[in-house]
């Protein structure tokens, strides 16, 4: 494709529809016998999105490949039976409800990194984090697989200077930054996702100790981390256009 940017200045590919052959990638991926994990959170009123997300992800996310879905929720009793594809497995993990959505945002990074250390690293090779309030509308395949993967925001492609949070650990100086990445869909190898989520949690906690809150909360910290640790693959805004409910 000549109508879009397909390579970053640090030579990481930017994946758009029409820039890859899914058949070739599927054949290569199957030979490796890999398992991919998906982490999502359904806390408080967000439990209402579980069925829509799971039905669409079961159908469209790495279809035909082994996927473990890890659903963290404070309402496990409200989850009805969901019929999963033979190669997919759903694990419902109870979590405690936090007092505010900012606390949920902070604890999410801690929970992911803690479970990687205690469980996920033994069960999956790659791990992707997705928001629950979406429905997948088309196939998302093995073209997303790489060491550290970020999705360019569908509504703001360039980094935003955080003028109100200059002392935040997430602050990006004006004129710096590559793209604005959404915290709604990111991932990579288990080891890389562990480093990302741990660093974001530590930054969030340091800000909290200093009485500071980054403009976009954990998304700001994710963007600061990815500025300093360049993603090895970027997903175009196509991967998150028109999916949020």
Automatic annotation (TrEMBL):
<dbReference type="GO" id="GO:0016758">
    <property type="term" value="F:hexosyltransferase activity"/>
</dbReference>
<feature type="binding site">
    <location>
        <position position="46"/>
    </location>
    <ligand>
        <name>UDP-N-acetyl-alpha-D-galactosamine</name>
    </ligand>
</feature>
<feature type="binding site">
    <location>
        <position position="219"/>
    </location>
    <ligand>
        <name>an alpha-L-fucosyl-(1-&gt;2)-beta-D-galactosyl derivative</name>
    </ligand>
</feature>
<feature type="active site" description="Nucleophile">
    <location>
        <position position="219"/>
    </location>
</feature>
<protein>
    <submittedName>
        <fullName>BGAT2 transferase</fullName>
    </submittedName>
</protein>
<dbReference type="GO" id="GO:0005794">
    <property type="term" value="C:Golgi apparatus"/>
</dbReference>
<dbReference type="GO" id="GO:0046872">
    <property type="term" value="F:metal ion binding"/>
</dbReference>
<keyword id="KW-0328">Glycosyltransferase</keyword>
<dbReference type="Pfam" id="PF03414">
    <property type="entry name" value="Glyco_transf_6"/>
</dbReference>
<keyword id="KW-0479">Metal-binding</keyword>
<keyword id="KW-0812">Transmembrane</keyword>
<feature type="binding site">
    <location>
        <position position="131"/>
    </location>
    <ligand>
        <name>Mn(2+)</name>
    </ligand>
</feature>
<keyword id="KW-1133">Transmembrane helix</keyword>
<keyword id="KW-0808">Transferase</keyword>
<dbReference type="GO" id="GO:0005975">
    <property type="term" value="P:carbohydrate metabolic process"/>
</dbReference>
<keyword id="KW-0472">Membrane</keyword>
<dbReference type="InterPro" id="IPR005076">
    <property type="entry name" value="Glyco_trans_6"/>
</dbReference>
<keyword id="KW-0735">Signal-anchor</keyword>
<dbReference type="InterPro" id="IPR029044">
    <property type="entry name" value="Nucleotide-diphossugar_trans"/>
</dbReference>
<keyword id="KW-0464">Manganese</keyword>
<feature type="binding site">
    <location>
        <begin position="41"/>
        <end position="43"/>
    </location>
    <ligand>
        <name>UDP-N-acetyl-alpha-D-galactosamine</name>
    </ligand>
</feature>
<dbReference type="GO" id="GO:0016020">
    <property type="term" value="C:membrane"/>
</dbReference>
<comment type="similarity">
    <text>Belongs to the glycosyltransferase 6 family.</text>
</comment>
<dbReference type="GO" id="GO:0031982">
    <property type="term" value="C:vesicle"/>
</dbReference>
